[in-house]
Amino acid sequence: MASSSDPTLEHLANSVLQPGFEGTTAPDWVRRRIAEGLGSVVLFARNIETPEQVARLTESLRAENPDLIVAIDEEAGDVTRLEAWTGSSRPGNLALGAVDDIDLTERVAHDIGRDLHAAGVSLNFAPSADVNSNPLNPVIGVRSFGARTDLVSRHTAAWIRGLQGAGVAACAKHFPGHGDTVVDSHYGLPQVRGSAEEIAMTALPPFIAAMEAGVRAVMTAHLLAPAYDPDLPATLSRLILVDLLRGELGFEGLLVTDGIEMGAVTDRYGIDGATVRAVAGGVDAVCVGGESAGEGTAELLSTALVKAVLDGTLPEERLAEASGRVRDFAAWSGERSRAVARAARDGDIGLVAARRAVRVRHRSVAALPLAGAPHVVELSPTMNLAIDGHTPWGIAGPLRDLRPDTTSVRLTEPELSHPGDLLDREALAPAVGRALVVVVRDAARHRWMTDTLTRLLRSRPDALVVEMGVPSGDTFGAAHLITHGATRVSGIAAAELLVGACA
Q1: CATH of domain 12-325
Q2: pLDDT recorded at residue 503
Q3: What number does CATH give the domain 358-499?
Q4: Is the dihedral of CA 249, 255, 257, 258 positive or negative?
Q5: Average pLDDT, stretch 390-395?
Q6: What's the whole-number average pLDDT of the chain?
């Protein structure tokens, strides 16, 4: 009988973990665990300074194992790791869906893959194949190609073809679909209320399209879908992962969890309990380290998996099967990466796409272009944890590049909740005699933001409004622009349109 110090079990346990770590060089504990069977690592913005530094980092990691899976969550758009400190140079999925040109989507994804391939990344946790059918969704939103199943399906497939054509494996997420939810799974357990028939018609087709496009990895969602399993979140559910995804849909590739430390699963089972249940339920690789990055977490999860095998909670055959899928995927993705030559950058394809995605929903006579340098008021929400809080966004910077006398202020809900004349002093007074541009981000989801916008427009009905999140059906101001995302290039594209400098 195996013991708690059985090297075979420890090797298997290490092989199914995908930990993150601190720092821009490989820590000793990560190197040691790779030698002890660790099959994957995940990079975050904290690991990234420059493309050259990332390439050195991945090369040093692979010195221990040439087929090590190096993963990243690079959706581009609002969720970027490579460009977290500057803002993404490519628009996200909602912008691509708004343009609805699958050739453009494929080119943008290929360009993302080019950068990842050059940096030594072999697996990208993208694209989001979620159909954002609920406009109040707090965690998907602009990360989705849109609210229509057919549109999301064709762009999911195109994105996968583009990324994998550049030598980087794609991962369709978040199965069985996170679009029709109103709870952020970082903090709580969302529920999908639809019947099995409704989910099959609306949420599953993009994942089928992803498989038909050649995807070899699928990420699970931390949500409850009672139509399939009334008790367990999808990440832990054999009914969803094995019976539905593998059985009915025929997926044979790698199943990886969303961040296992997220509240939707850890609040109920603990991070170690969720890990064991996920692997027992059919998951092959456990992603961890967005918030819990360190050797202690990796040790805790590895120990929990070994203990679960020894006490019969987790069949050793299931752990070995998961390890085998990780190994097979590593070999396939490594071979694919080595077989693809480094590609040239596709011009300014990201800016081209962002420009095409901007829509002017309404404009009054003479509202555009701006005659002089405006005052910009940016209403800034608290972002979900998938979006790096340090990533710059907005219109003020790009406008200042075009009109140096542009002034700006960024206001948040806590600031505006205090009694006083902050809005008059910081937003309205500096705009006297000048154009006022009000920038919002997912205004329909934030009552404070729509209330503030209403107050500003009551005083300045001639203000121009720029929505950088998911648009609602409402129209505001003398001109209403929609960028379908808050990336750096989306800000540039909107600023160009505002001043009449469009290329």
Answers
A1: 3.20.20.300
A2: 56
A3: 3.40.50
A4: negative
A5: 93
A6: 94
Indicate if the pLDDT at residue 44 is higher than 90.
yes
Q: What per-residue confidence (pLDDT) applies to 7?
A: 85
Block residue for tokens 């170690």: 272
Q: Which of 360, 372, 347 is nearest to 436 (CA)?
A: 372
* HSE toward the beta carbon, residue 134, CA cutoff 13 A: 20
Cβ atoms of 465 and 477 closer than 8 Å: yes
Same fold, 12-325 and 358-499: no
Amino acid at site 303: T
Segment (H or E) for 202 = helix 196-202
Find the radius of gyration of the CA atoms of the chain. 23
Residue 321 CB neighbour total at 10 angstroms:
16
- Mean pLDDT, to the nearest integer, of 105-131? 97
* pLDDT tens, residue by residue, 55-83: 999 999 999 899 999 999 999 999 999 99
- Give domain limits for the chain: 12-325, 358-499
**Confidence at 5, pLDDT banded by 50, 70, 90:** low
**Alpha carbon distance 406, 402 (integer Å):** 9
Instruction: Specify whether the CB–CB gap between 234 and 225 falls below 8 A.
Output: yes
Q: What angle do CA 170, 90, 52 make, to 5 degrees?
A: 75
Residues 6+ apart with CB under 8 A from 242: 281, 282
Average pLDDT rounded to a whole number, residues 330-336:
95
User: Active-site residue numbers?
Assistant: 186, 258
Strands 17-19 and 40-43: unpaired
pLDDT at 108 over 50: yes
Give the span between the Cα atoms of 90 and 141, in whole angstroms: 17
